[in-house]
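INFO  loader      accepted 1 record
INFO  loader      residues=290
INFO  predictor   begin
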Amino acid sequence: ERAGLITWGGRGVVGAVAAVGADLSRSTFELIAYREGERAAIPAEVVRLMEALTYPFTFHNLDGRRVLIQPRGPDPVYYGIRGLSPPHLLLAQSILEAHGYKPAGWVIYRTNQATDAHLAHGVILAEPTPYSYYRVRGVVVEARRVAGRHVVGRLDNGLAFVAYRHLGRLASELERCVMCDVELYGGLKPRFGQLFLYVERAYVLGRYAPSPSRCPYCGGSLESLGRDRGWRCRRCGVVFRSREVRWLYDSSIAKAVFPRPGEWRHLLRPPDLDVEVAGFFSPRSVEWIS
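INFO  predictor   done
INFO  writer      dumping tokens
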């Protein structure tokens, strides 16, 4: 606007500028098919067949029986298929057309969907900052369900986090993850006078568990003598005024935890997707489609 250009579309201008300036060195593709008239619902069985013949070169097609390639709004889009190469998208489209789902027109876009571009090219600040993307490691010291069944928790560094219930397994895992060493990713928003991390994904690195104290002389187990009275070794009888609390670290539970597919954000890279395949296709390779 300062350069004298005419803009319109409200906040859509932000997305348009981001698209013009996007770094697509790592990219995927999306075939957008358009409709005229009503949008005929594509059954999950047909989409499952399409995915069976094209996965992993097409992805994010289904969430259980929920079809993810069709929007629900009044827009003119019939369906959108995400994939790693234009030829596989055309194959997927031909499968749908063979079952009678023929669009009025279509176009293939080169995109940064499913590439983790917000991690590769974004600015992740060292300190929590409102309305920024953030990555943090800490120990979960509290996690509980609140009204609406969302999970609210807190890390040992004081940062609060939220995992919406519709994220499925991600919310359930964090609820059960007290004393886990985790790395959380998500956006920061101010709520109720403090910052909350709205979790997009989590990596569980291990869990801390208290180790039963042993007698330093004979290795026997200790029994409590009552409040403020100390502990006594069951084997040799030595009495201790205090005992050392040791923690065991179990790294065998390490895993990545993602939301259910229907809740993946556009840029999130699915855990089993190799987007490097898309590197074989340069922007020139899609010019013929237009």
